[in-house]
Design brief:
By secondary structure, the chain is mainly alpha-helical. The chain is built from seven helices and two strands, in the order αααααββαα. The protein has a two-stranded antiparallel sheet with strand order 1-2. Strand 1 and strand 2 form a beta hairpin. The longest helix is centred in the middle third of the chain and has 44 residues. The protein is globular and about 55 Å long.
Length: 183
């Protein structure tokens, strides 16, 4: 039963996510933490951090690690396969449609309209990693931002990335070194 749930969950995530791995994070978190309770918020945050530091797309890495935590090596392989399968199917369909309709204005308009949706999903993923929302209110996930220095690191990373266009890999390395030195 767990294998069927893993496959169905990650297949649906792969089917309905546009914009890459970062856009998947909010959907993955909703399913594996909130709906099924396979992982805690702290475990999910750790998986996201590990997924960013390892080679490969973050969504695939999250699926792989989540599958492993839930059902071992078989679960890992199944969750990864389920996540990427819709992409292969959709990509084949898009190539077929693109070859037939790429010169129409409707196709161009649809592609333009997807950009804000992807930006919103990435922003939602960031907020989900920072805050816990419940019926009693909103609180900071203390495992992720336990003190003010974590907020300073977040702010400095944002400024460096947004305003100074610092390479994200350098920010990840600098954040890791800073975390090792401070904590």
């Amino acid at each position: 039963m767990i294998y069927l749930q893993l496959f169905a969950t990650f297949f649906v995530i792969g089917l309905f996510t546009f914009g890459g791995g970062a856009a998947m994070l909010s959907l993955i978190q909703t399913q594996v933490v909130t709906k099924f309770g396979w992982l805690t918020e702290a475990q999910f945050t750790d998986i996201v951090a590990i997924s960013q530091c390892t080679p490969g797309p973050i969504g695939v890495n999250c699926a792989t690690y989540t599958g492993y935590e839930v059902a071992g090596v078989a679960g890992s392989a199944l969750a990864t396969f389920a996540l990427v399968l819709p992409s292969f199917i959709i990509f084949y369909g898009i190539i077929t449609l693109y070859n037939k309709y790429h010169t129409t204005s409707l196709f161009s308009d649809v592609m333009t309209g997807l950009r804000p949706a992807v930006a919103g999903l990435i922003g939602a993923a960031a907020l989900i990693l920072m805050f816990h929302v419940s019926t009693t209110g909103i609180s900071v996930i203390t495992e992720n931002f336990g003190d003010w220095t974590a907020w300073v690191i977040l702010g400095a990373s944002f400024v460096a990335s947004f305003f100074f266009k610092v390479n994200p890999i350098l920010l990840i390395v600098a954040g890791g070194i800073t975390g090792l030195l401070i904590y």
